[in-house]
Every structure is written in C-alpha cells, then in structure tokens.
Amino acid sequence: MMTVKPVKALNDNYIWVYVQGSDAVVVDPGEAAPILTYLQAHDLHLLTILLTHDHDDHTAGVAKVLDVYPEATVIGPQETERFNTKTVAPGDSFTLFDQEVSVFLTAGHTSGHISYFTNDMLFCGDALFSAGCGRVFTGDYQAQYDALETFNKLPDNTRVFAGHEYTETNLKFAQSLEEYPEAVDKALQEVSLLSSQAIPTLPSTIGQEKQINVFLRAETLDEFKALRDERDNF
Q1: Binding residues for Zn(2+)
Q2: Closest C-alpha among 23, 86, 32, 85 to residue 57
Q3: Which residues bind Zn(2+) 1 (predicted)?
C-alpha cells in the first residue's frame, strides 16, 4: 500500500514522504532533523529524494539526510544539479514504485522549477498552493501563468501536495477581493477549523483548486499578474 505523509519543517514547510512498504521517497527536504526523525521512527529506508527547485527551504536538509542514507538517489532540475544524482528536464519521465513519474516545467517562482506527477498525485513545490501560488521571484509572469495552465489540465481527482501551509491566508486574501469564488467562504471555515487544531489542510485536489484558487481561475495573463501583485502586498 502506498501512502503520502506530511512532515512539518521550518515555519510552514511540508516535507512529503511517499511510502510503499518500508521504502520511502522524500520530497524537498528543507530541514534534515524532522525528516530523519520520521524515517527512523517508522523504520523506513530512503530510496530517493525529489527536488522541485533551488531554494534553501526545500534543499537545505539534503546533505545531512544523505549523510545518514548515502545510497539514496537525488532527482531534481538543472538548478539543483549540485545535489542531483540524476538531473531531469520537463517532458522526462522515470519510474518510482513501479509507477511512471512525469516531469512538468512549472517555472515563475524560479526559472527551472519543476513538478512531479504520478498516480494522480502532484508534487508541486512552490508552483501551486492551496488557494494560491508562489511568488514570481523571476519576474516571468508568463511562465507562472503557463504553469497554472498546466495544472488546470490535470484530472480533477489529482491530489495536490504543495510545499507550504498557506491555505488559510490565501483564502483570506481571496475574500478581500471585490469578487471572489462562492466556494471560498465554506473552504475558509473548514480550513480555519483544521488550522486551529494544527491539522494540515493539504493535500488539496485540482478539482477543489478550480473552485477556490483565484490564481488558477485567472482567465488572462493580465488578470493573473494583477492578482499576484495584490497578493504580494496583502
């Protein structure tokens, strides 16, 4: 049986642990201690680390994790090459747990940001959040808009494993807009209850995001850019 579990790290990061039997794949270990504790507590063998992009809060734990699991492979984009055992590019695919993993370019937050899609699961780093998306640090709003279009084409039942717990703030931002999706109010009630109990609001689904994510619902590049600029100053 395959499962995916969140491990909280830093202030609001999630390190995702994809498990089959006693084997594990770890996504974006921004901090070593919590993921090492989790792996050891559950007697898991680390096979692979997946990296989505080159920001410290997603990569800073890699070296220490490899000290403990030196045989683990590291798969990532060109921008994380210094960590990688295997560098992948958009359009590539590879196999994990006998399942094909597809690599998508989801740039904008960084120039080489990628996401991984497998078995109706999306590991998207900072390219997509529940009710939000990452800041466009590159200034390339077209790239980020294209990434959102990629996500929009995925099946509605795709589970979204994003890199940060920003859902409540993102929904409050949506409520601050003059017009916002009807589903936001109910979603915020549910998310606020989860957050008050320190329960993760992730994973979401693409179907849910199509209802509540104002960035994913933006119909033009200009609309997306205006929303992103407002969110940056929220």
Answers
A1: 53, 55, 57-58, 109, 126, 164
A2: 32
A3: 53, 55, 109, 126
